[in-house]
Amino acid sequence: MAKVKMSKKATSIDMTAMCDVAFLLLTFFILTATAKAPEPLPVDTPSSTVQTKLPETDLATLTVGKSNGQEQVFFGVKGRDVRIKTLELMAQKYNLSFTEDEIKQFSLVDEFGVPIEAMKQLLAMKAADRAKPGIQPGIPHDSINNQLKDWIYTARQANIDVADKELQFAIKGDAKEEYPQIKKIMDILQDQKINSFNLVTGLRGKDY
Asked: What is the pLDDT of residues 32-60, one digit of tens each?
């Protein structure tokens, strides 16, 4: 008896729905992604296996590094309201005044490194220009003019006024930075009874 041959039909899959989902996901990730702001003082942090993340709020960061052979320290604090309050307190201390537009601009600055007297000139620049090498010379922190100490003190006070919490601190230093410079920053913190702070490092691989 002859075998009955079954006719073979070509199979096709409608990928329209899958393409829609792929484009929706792509659109979502693009719209929710946050662009990394350029760092005014880029540093190569030392490697570490520690994976503890820094807090998202109530944090101030002190970045220590070199630019054009000069030791520099930059300062930044989380939270726009805390930044505004910090600038207001510093303005009172140094008998300065800032316009509403300058205060708004400062609230958008993640990190800066200029003397308080040059803050107006910095805020008048475009964000891209502020991040150019050599524009910001660093915050004074010597025995004669220790503005870094004042920024730390006022930021702590501002964070308590705004968030009713103690401000935490992190030191972000270059891997090639000499210890005395880092120790100098630690001493400024410890002079204000800040004995607990984070050291920012980069995650190293298992085969390091």
From this structure: 655 555 566 665 565 665 667 878 899 99
Contact status, residue 42 vs residue 177, Cβ threshold 8 Å = no
- At residue 27, the 3 state secondary structure works out as helix
- 125: tokens are 């620049």
* Residue 158 CB coordination number (10 Å): 24
Alpha-carbon dihedral angle through residues 106, 109, 115, 116, given to the nearest 10 degrees = 20
List, in sequence order, every beta strand (DSSP E) within the chain.
47-48, 59-67, 70-77, 168-173, 198-199, 202-203
Radius of gyration of the chain (CA): 25
Question: Which amino acid, one-letter code, is at 204?
Answer: R
Q: What angle do CA 203, 189, 108 make, to 5 degrees?
A: 70
Per the CB < 8 A criterion, the answer to whether 113 and 42 are in contact is no
What value does the mean pLDDT of the chain take?
83
State whether residue 164 is helix, strand or coil. Answer: coil
What's CA 110's distance to the chain center, in Å? 5
pLDDT digits (tens, 9 = 90+) for 6-37: 666 556 666 666 767 777 777 766 666 555 55
pTM for this one?
Answer: 0.77
